[in-house]
């Protein structure tokens, strides 16, 4: 292997040389000449406008870019198809023209070689060749050229055409030319393309045998069966003799030629392809009639086998391969060398395009690892995994320690579809880490290096998102593509990174537990000692303590553990020699500047943003400081923060700055000094994965890649946040392990709200008596004291009550009752989760009630929700009851409350029957005994006996409670600690969907490697249906408030997690607003659009401005493309302007800005690639802003990067003019809440994206837009005003004893959760002005004016309490809270007291 040379970007690279110089240069910026670290775009020099690309388009024609500008020139690739054209000198010979289109480029070189051979050696015939990659046909010039080529061709060949909009182009070009073509060969592709096949009298329908059409059967089966198309076709090839006996001899010959052609094609080398062309020419080209070229039969290769670049041939048996491998003279391996299994695509091997595979094999062996490279001919790679990765002696144990797939495809199914269950079964059984790396498919190396997006969006959908469903991790780009030959080549620094990471995963299985080193990393956000250990809904230190005890029991060295979690907190937070309340965290290591510069290869690149090291973050002025504490072989460290959150100027930059020296020193310490075998990031979420770099497919100069280095990364992540978990997987190579959010409970009622409920029940029992008026007056008075007068319209005085009719009184009481029930039944997570502590059965009840509420028509068998079943039992429709309740009809509000109570008691009885004496799910012997004696009935029957719902449909109830039984077992089964132990032993972590466990109980049990969903599968039909309901309710509500007028424009925010949980509901809402419907293609992928006619829509098309979170942008590039197309399609409809506000505004803006209407209709915006959030949240959390103007400038400078479906490869391009022009027309701002766990004040993201005051500042009339929030957390979807939602949030969480006492049970971390809610509430004041004064008053009364409570908070977490006090003072100082002088005096005194405590002054 030594000295085997390959070349990258024109320079030779020696694959096998293992000189230390080569190894130490890992990720060095000089790895490839064009990969010099580009940080200029992240320089702190204020917002900049990007240079215009390609000049002015002058008219409606979308821009087309000349080669070399921007990422893939805004189209998807800049390679000129002319580079594949071969034009021979005819010299009197017959000239044939062959045109081909393929998905990937590996056939380019062998097809060119085959044609050159014919042209050189054949006297009778020569061949002109024209070739196209499928993606190139998006470009209008290329497509025109392609149509001309096809029109003059003799033979057309197409393969793997599985992208519908491009398949349509193939049909458009080849369809009309089919008659004049001598032959048309289509290998596995979409149905419409397959039908173009033409060989003499052969058509695809003949391959069916026995009169059945095979193609028809395929197409029918393709969407139902798991075996994919290519596998089916290969099966047909094997059963050919049976098929041919049904056909007349001439037809049999044509069918045989088709199947032979497929075998030549799959054989792929230049001999096979030469024979393919000659065989088709002599059989079907009139010009070659009568000539016998004597083509050889197809050379066949094994369907599955083993391959090695130095082996004499392919092997079909592992023992034979190992006999050759173990007797090699060129290389020696250690006895316990790690063994890496590689998965390869056979088409690359047979076409001779395997330079990139050679590079990986060479690098692994140079690093001392053995390799077992296997391949498959079709796209089911699970077969070679099962056949060759197990012990050849038959022990049933895995022979490999880690599997790396170099295909980029899902393990089963390739580009057409995938079969994740089959893949997971194969990988679970093998039980080793599974890495999926990718070769660049649709870009050249230069295009990828220059691109901010990174990997092409179509490739992300096919080769990153789909393998994640199999449990694949670490999508590292290991191979590039040469723009001239189309061949793949190694990317040395990426292969370096891939191989060292794969070997480190493999070593986890080999190293003794007591010697393994684990670096647990916690987060501190915002940076403050009171915030160390921040994570969504997780008791971080309680969880770490539990993990350490579990690891100790399992044989790991965790040193001397403190006696309890309080001791653990103190040891990390406090320097031993400092006073207890010192402001300094414990310093684990002091790194000199020399050591840092020597060990951190990218230190110099950070100087552009941060100056010379050590800087002033995580440093003492001379050295860089690593905060944390070591326990045996476990280090608990505190991840530094971004570093710029306190600097308002840096927060204004449109792109994020690089990590600071302290951040780089932390990860350098973990890898090079502590020597971690794995890092465990603890909880949702840190900053590493949000550092600048490409969106997906990092290069060696992207910061997340540089920082994580070669350490396997494990990451405890909240199960309900699949979108950010996916960012962590793709950008920091994390193997995520899901944890449960805390058990939910109903918010309940307290204080005056409880009293109100009692008054209402008195009113109901006496509404016809003389006391009704007095009770109604008391209800109104109490509702006012509880500040419900903003949510329910109440009469002015008692006099008005006296003059009311009974119906009018009922309407008021009904309105108050509805509001109370909304508060009472709202789900809230109580307390914080501890890893490895599943909820008790009782704690699971509220979650199960909510699971039972939803209809699940797609389930097998379909399930009807419990409220609907109970309503049907009394002859009512639940939707009617919801509608009456929403209007405040007293009888319906009361009936819905009765249904809710009956649901709760049914579920509670059901759970009681399944609860053991320890309160956990188990066997309840009493219930079992009475059941066996026939003394008991089903628990839900018991619960409903004697109620009006007793006649509910028994069969439907059995179906529902059977499902709930499954859900209950899932909720209380967890593998959170088990999955961590398995990952540390180098085993496979089973994948599972992330999302809301109520909507999708498949999220449970936790302890799985979280994946999102196939991005091309949304929005689903159900999401469209739900979206329509919400949009109708939103527009009705706004119309009521605007005197019957529709809003002209709505600003919508799209979130990644929401769209995963709801399968694209908010995405579908945008489409519904503009009146365009997304529809699936023949393979069920949503990528087509239909305009809904105005007659059917029944209202105007509403204009939108869509702001996508950075996470949504990363996960759903294809859906942003779909949205942009939908909005532009609406703008191009020739309709009256009063019925099409999209067109109306686009025409106005086109004139105002001097651009085309299509460009003026740009409405889909986000951050620049590699940047996240508007930074408004950072400014608010760190009090680093001067006025609201500054916050609005952050929003404008960071959120106005436009996405353009005409140039999808360009990523986000700064387009502030169009963004501002569109925002000026906005009448309504709108966001969605989709799950009970995360509401408006739980996280800062929601106010960070809220443009309400920004719109008022931009509008010419300065008018504040209406602001609405859709709440789809229950079956009865609501549209509330932002003010109503903020009030509901305050009542159910911040001011609710059930919530804050639940939080305080976690002590230190609970105080921080309370403080965070208040800070986020102030964030809403800053961006929307929709927080009422009483919210601050009540919060102050609860936490500050109650001396006992204030003392509890101060004792548990003085730093967070100080921040809480400071936030009250800040809210007053900024004019958001009108506080009384005595309130402010008390706050100032308290601030001084807590300062003294922190500084140790008694």
- Biggest sheet, in brief? 8 strands, mixed
Helix content: 40-55%
Instruction: Label the structural class.
Output: alpha/beta
Number of helices: 58
**Nearest-integer average pLDDT:** 85
Shape: globular
Number of strands: 35
Q: For the terminal residues, how far apart are their CA atoms? A: 72 Å
Rg from alpha-carbon coordinates: 33 Å
Q: Beta-strand percentage?
A: 5-15%
Q: Unreliable runs, pLDDT <50, ≥5 residues?
A: 1-36, 38-75, 208-216, 222-227, 576-583
User: What topology, given as strand order, has the largest sheet?
Assistant: 32-31-30-29-26-33-34-35
If you had to describe this structure to a student in words, what would you say it looks like?
Residues 1-36, 38-75, 208-216, 222-227 and 576-583 have low confidence and may be disordered. This protein starts with a strand and ends with a helix. By secondary structure, it is α/β, with parallel strands linked by helices. The strands form nine sheets. Strands 32-31-30-29-26-33-34-35 form an eight-stranded mixed beta sheet, sandwiched between helices. A seven-stranded mixed beta sheet has the order 16-17-18-15-19-20-21, with helices on both faces. Helix 33 (878-887) crosses helix 34 (890-912).
């Amino acid at each position: 292997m030594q000295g085997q040379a390959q070349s990258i970007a024109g320079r030779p690279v020696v694959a096998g040389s293992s000189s230390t110089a080569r190894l130490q240069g890992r990720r060095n910026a000089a790895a490839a000449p064009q990969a010099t670290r580009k940080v200029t775009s992240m320089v702190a020099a204020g917002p900049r406008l990007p240079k215009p690309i390609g000049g002015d388009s002058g008219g409606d024609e979308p821009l087309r870019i000349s080669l070399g500008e921007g990422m893939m020139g805004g189209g998807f690739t800049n390679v000129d198809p002319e580079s594949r054209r071969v034009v021979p000198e005819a010299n009197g010979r017959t000239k044939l023209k062959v045109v081909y289109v393929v998905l990937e480029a590996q056939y380019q070189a062998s097809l060119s070689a085959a044609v050159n051979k014919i042209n050189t050696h054949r006297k009778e015939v020569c061949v002109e060749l024209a070739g196209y990659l499928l993606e190139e046909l998006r470009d209008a010039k290329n497509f025109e050229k392609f149509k001309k080529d096809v029109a003059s061709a003799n033979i057309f060949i197409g393969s793997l055409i599985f992208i519908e909009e491009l398949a349509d182009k193939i049909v458009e070009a080849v369809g009309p030319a089919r008659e004049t073509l001598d032959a048309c060969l289509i290998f596995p592709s979409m149905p419409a393309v397959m039908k173009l096949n033409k060989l003499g009298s052969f058509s695809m329908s003949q391959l069916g045998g026995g009169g059945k059409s095979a193609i028809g059967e395929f197409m029918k089966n393709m969407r139902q069966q798991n075996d994919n198309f290519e596998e089916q076709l290969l099966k047909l090839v094997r059963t050919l003799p049976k098929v041919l006996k049904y056909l007349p001899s001439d037809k049999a010959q044509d069918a045989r030629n088709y199947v032979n052609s497929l075998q030549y094609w799959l054989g792929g080398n230049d001999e096979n392809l030469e024979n393919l062309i000659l065989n088709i020419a002599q059989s079907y080209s009139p010009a070659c009639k009568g000539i016998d070229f004597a083509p050889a039969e197809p050379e066949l290769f094994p369907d599955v086998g083993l391959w090695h670049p130095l082996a004499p041939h392919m092997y079909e048996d592992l023992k034979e391969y190992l006999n050759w491998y173990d007797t090699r003279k060129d290389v020696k391996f250690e006895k316990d060398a790690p063994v890496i299994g590689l998965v390869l695509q056979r088409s690359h091997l047979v076409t001779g395009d395997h330079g990139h595979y050679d590079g990986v094999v060479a690098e692994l062996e140079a690093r001392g690892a053995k390799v077992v490279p296997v391949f498959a001919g079709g796209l089911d790679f699970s077969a070679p995994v099962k056949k060759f990765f197990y012990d050849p002696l038959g022990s049933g144990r895995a022979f490999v320690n880690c599997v790396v797939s170099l295909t980029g495809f899902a393990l089963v199914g390739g580009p057409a579809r995938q079969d994740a269950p089959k893949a997971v079964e194969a990988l679970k059984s093998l039980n080793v880490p599974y890495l999926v790396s990718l070769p660049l498919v649709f870009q050249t190396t230069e295009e990828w290096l220059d691109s901010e997006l990174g990997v092409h969006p179509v490739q992300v959908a096919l080769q990153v998102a789909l393998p994640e469903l199999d449990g694949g991790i670490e999508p590292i780009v290991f191979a590039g593509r040469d723009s001239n030959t189309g061949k793949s080549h190694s990317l040395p620094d990426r292969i370096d990174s891939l191989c060292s990471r794969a070997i480190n995963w493999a070593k986890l299985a080999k190293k003794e537990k007591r010697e393994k080193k684990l670096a647990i990393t916690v987060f501190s956000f915002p940076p403050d000692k009171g915030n160390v250990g921040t994570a969504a809904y997780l008791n971080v230190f309680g969880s770490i303590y539990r993990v350490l005890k579990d690891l100790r029991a399992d044989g790991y060295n965790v040193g001397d553990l403190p006696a309890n979690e309080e001791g653990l907190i103190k040891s990390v937070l406090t320097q031993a020699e400092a006073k207890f309340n010192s402001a300094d965290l414990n310093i684990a290591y002091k790194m000199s500047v020399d050591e840092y510069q020597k060990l951190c290869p990218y230190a110099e690149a950070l100087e552009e943003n941060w100056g010379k090291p050590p800087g002033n973050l995580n440093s003492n002025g001379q050295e860089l400081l690593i905060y944390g504490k070591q326990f045996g072989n476990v280090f608990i460290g505190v991840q530094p923060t971004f570093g710029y959150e306190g600097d308002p100027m840096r927060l204004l930059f449109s792109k994020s700055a690089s990590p600071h020296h302290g951040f780089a020193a932390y990860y350098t310490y973990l890898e090079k000094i502590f020597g971690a075998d794995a890092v465990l990031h603890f909880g949702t979420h840190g900053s590493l994965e949000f550092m600048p770099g490409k969106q997906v497919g990092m290069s060696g100069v992207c910061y997340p890649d540089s920082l994580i280095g070669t350490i396997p990364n494990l990451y405890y992540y909240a199960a309900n946040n699949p979108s950010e978990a996916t960012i962590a997987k793709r950008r920091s190579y994390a193997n995520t392990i899901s944890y449960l959010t805390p058990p939910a409970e109903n918010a309940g009622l307290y204080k005056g709200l409880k009293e109100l409920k009692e008054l209402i029940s008195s009113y109901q029992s006496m509404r016809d008596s003389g006391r009704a008026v007095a009770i109604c007056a008391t209800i109104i008075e109490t509702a006012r004291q509880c500040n419900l007068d903003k949510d329910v319209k109440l009469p002015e005085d008692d006099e008005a009550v006296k003059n009311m009719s009974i119906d009018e009184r009922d309407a008021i009481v009904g309105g108050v009752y509805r509001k109370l029930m909304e508060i009472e039944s709202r789900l809230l997570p109580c307390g914080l989760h501890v890893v490895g502590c599943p909820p008790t059965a009782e704690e699971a009840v509220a979650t199960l009630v909510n699971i039972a509420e939803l209809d699940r028509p797609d389930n097998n068998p379909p399930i009807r929700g419990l409220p609907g079943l109970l309503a049907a039992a009394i002859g009512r429709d639940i939707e009617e009851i919801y509608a009456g309740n929403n209007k405040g009809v007293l009888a319906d509000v009361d009936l819905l409350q009765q249904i809710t109570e009956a649901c709760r008691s049914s579920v509670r009885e059901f759970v009681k029957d399944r609860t053991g004496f320890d309160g956990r799910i188990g066997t309840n012997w009493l219930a079992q005994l009475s059941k066996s004696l026939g003394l008991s009935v089903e628990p839900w029957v018991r619960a409903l006996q004697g109620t009006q719902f007793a006649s509910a449909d028994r069969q439907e109830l059995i179906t529902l409670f059977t499902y709930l039984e499954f859900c209950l077992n899932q909720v209380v089964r967890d593998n959170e600690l088990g999955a961590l132990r398995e990952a540390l032993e180098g085993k496979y972590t089973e994948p599972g969907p992330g999302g809301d466990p109520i909507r999708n109980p498949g999220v449970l049990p936790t302890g799985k490697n979280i994946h999102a969903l196939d991005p091309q599968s949304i929005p689903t039909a159900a999401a469209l249906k739900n979206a329509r309901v919400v949009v109708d309710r939103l527009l009705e509500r706004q119309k009521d408030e605007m005197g019957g007028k529709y809003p002209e424009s709505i600003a919508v925010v799209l979130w990644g997690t929401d769209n995963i949980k709801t399968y694209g509901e908010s995405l579908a809402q945008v489409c519904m607003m503009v009146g365009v419907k997304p529809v699936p293609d023949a393979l069920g992928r949503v990528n087509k659009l239909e305009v809904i006619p105005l007659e059917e829509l029944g209202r105007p098309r509403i204009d939108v401005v869509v702001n996508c979170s950075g996470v949504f942008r990363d996960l759903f590039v294809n859906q942003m493309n779909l949205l942009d197309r939908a909005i532009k399609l609406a703008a191009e409809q020739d309709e009256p302007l009063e019925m099409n506000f999209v067109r109306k505004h686009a025409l106005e803006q086109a004139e105002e800005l001097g651009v085309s209407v299509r460009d003026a209709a740009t409405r889909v915006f986000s951050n620049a690639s590699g940047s996240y959030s508007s930074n408004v949240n950072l400014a608010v959390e760190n009090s680093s802003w001067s006025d609201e103007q500054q916050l609005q400038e952050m929003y404008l400078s960071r959120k106005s990067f436009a996405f353009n479906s005409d140039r999808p490869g360009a990523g986000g391009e700064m387009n502030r003019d169009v963004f501002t022009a569109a925002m000026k027309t906005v009448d309504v701002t709108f966001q969605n809440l989709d799950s009970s766990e995360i509401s408006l004040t739980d996280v800062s993201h929601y106010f960070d994206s809220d443009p309400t005051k920004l719109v008022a500042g931009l509008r010419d009339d300065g008018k504040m837009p209406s602001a609405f929030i859709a709440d789809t957390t229950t079956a009865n979807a609501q549209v509330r005003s932002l003010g109503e939602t903020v009030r509901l949030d305050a009542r159910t969480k911040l001011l609710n004893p059930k919530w804050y006492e639940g939080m305080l049970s976690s002590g230190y971390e609970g105080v921080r959760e309370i403080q965070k809610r208040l800070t986020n509430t102030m964030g809403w004041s800053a961006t929307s002005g929709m927080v009422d004064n009483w919210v601050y008053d009540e919060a102050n009364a609860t936490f500050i004016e109650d001396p006992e409570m204030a003392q509890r908070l101060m004792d548990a977490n003085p730093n967070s309490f100080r921040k809480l006090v400071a936030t009250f003072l800040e809210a007053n100082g900024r004019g958001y809270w009108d506080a009384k002088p005595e309130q402010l005096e008390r706050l100032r005194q308290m601030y001084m007291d807590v300062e003294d405590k922190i500084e140790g002054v008694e």
